[in-house]
Design a protein that fits this description.
alpha+beta; Ubiquitin-like (UB roll); five-stranded mixed beta sheet; 5 strands; 19% strand; elongated
């Protein structure tokens, strides 16, 4: 460009270029994530909790702000406990915590180190469904309210 030339870019060119650059920036971590890497060390705000879930011992490292519900679903892989309202009103997240009914969305996982937890997956005995589990199947029930 010569000195004094007026450089103008129209909106369409600007938006298109922004999307292209943004896509490349966003894809970078995805491509980098494909490489084999070592397991990440627990973050500074993480706490390790020891729990007995459905009769089996679990040691789980969680962020101090993680709800018991999110830990069960995302870290332990027990997805039978559902996230409904995330406010404790619907009951979809109900578990037994040391034998007491609890809305798992309303309590932090780090508060229950050493606890005994029973989820819907843990109600069956010797391969026989619990009546509650069978009722959900028989009635094609939803887990809420």
């Amino acid at each position: 460009m010569a000195d004094g030339d007026d450089f103008r870019i129209n909106r369409r060119t600007f938006v298109g270029a922004s999307i292209a650059v943004g896509g490349a920036v966003a894809a970078g971590p995805l491509v980098a994530g494909c490489e084999k890497s070592e397991p990440a060390a627990p973050a500074a705000g993480d706490t390790t909790v020891n729990l007995r879930i459905n009769g089996k011992p679990h040691q789980v490292s969680v962020d101090n702000r993680t709800s018991l519900l999110d830990m069960l679903r995302e870290r332990v892989g027990l997805t039978g406990t559902k996230k409904g309202c995330d406010q404790g009103a619907c009951g979809a997240c109900t578990i037994l915590l040391d034998g007491v009914r609890v809305n798992s969305c309303l309590t932090l996982a780090v508060m229950h180190d050493g606890a005994q937890i029973t989820t819907i997956e843990g109600l069956a005995e010797n391969g026989t469904l619990h009546p509650l589990q069978q009722a959900f199947i028989d009635e094609d029930a939803f887990q809420c309210g």
